[in-house]
Amino acid sequence: MPLATPVSPETLSEPLLEGDCLTSSEFIRRWEDMPDLKRAELIDGFVNMPSPVSVRHEDTESRVTFWLSSYALATPGCRSGLEATWVMGERNVPQPDITLTILPEYGGQSRIEGQYHSGAPELVVEVAVSRYSRDFGAKKRLYEQMGVREYGIVLPGEEKLFWFGRSAAGFQPLEPGADGILRSACFPGLWLNVAALWKLDLRGIHEVLQQGLATPEHAEFATGLIGPKS
To answer: Which residue ranges in the chain fall short of pLDDT 70?
Structure first.
């Protein structure tokens, strides 16, 4: 029986553990050596591991993803993303629930380096069923510092939506109109029927979004995107 080939200590990688203090590069290296691990984040230099995903979280996230994906489909140059890894400097590698970006070749502020996104998406949405403090605290500060232009936190258990828009003074709250529709300041025509979100009503979400996409503001925005160089 042949002897097993010895493995040098240099080829072994320590697993990611909650609370580990790491650099972004070390975090990525360890994670890549754990192919079965699907969710992990590095926030302010410390590893955060995911909580179990509830049915309510899944349902809400899928509706928000539908909303943003539908907008991206109608807006060439925009891209929606789901649970992707973003490298934001030497101490932060968040994994936002949902993002909406303007592609770099269309004038967007982020880029792709190797296998991962780098910089900041224009829009981030987090679905918060537990660990509210992280989404409202460390991650909110990170997204604000990195230049995210809009940040939404959805609390399905309480049926609350917190939306923040970027200003010279940092993130400022954005509220739905008297008609219950949230209108994005960053992405013209991105309208959300908030009541339909709580009801998990895809039809209601779709109908109000279509109203936003039919506005002159959306047409002007879509036409104004730079587009790839030939």
So the answer is: 1-13, 131, 229-230
* Confidence (pLDDT) at 129: 84
Report the SS3 class of residue 24. Answer: helix
pLDDT at residue 228 in the model: 73
Instruction: Dig out the tokens for 110 from the structure.
Output: 């982020």
pLDDT for 8? 38
Chain-centre distance for alpha carbon 101: 9
Distance CA 160, CA 38 (A): 27
- Of 68, 111, 63, 116, which Cα lies nearest the Cα of 94? 116
Using one digit for the tens of pLDDT, what is the confidence trace for 13-25?
689 999 999 999 9
Total residues belonging to the chain = 230
Report the 10 Å Cβ neighbour count for 145: 13
How far is residue 185 from each of residues 34, 36, 165, 226, measured CA to CA in Å? 39, 38, 7, 19
Structural domains of the chain sorted by starting position, each given as residue range(s) with its CATH number in brackets: 24-221 (3.90.1570.10)
Structure tokens that stand for 77 in this block: 């140059």
CA-to-CA distance for 211 and 191, rounded, in angstroms?
8
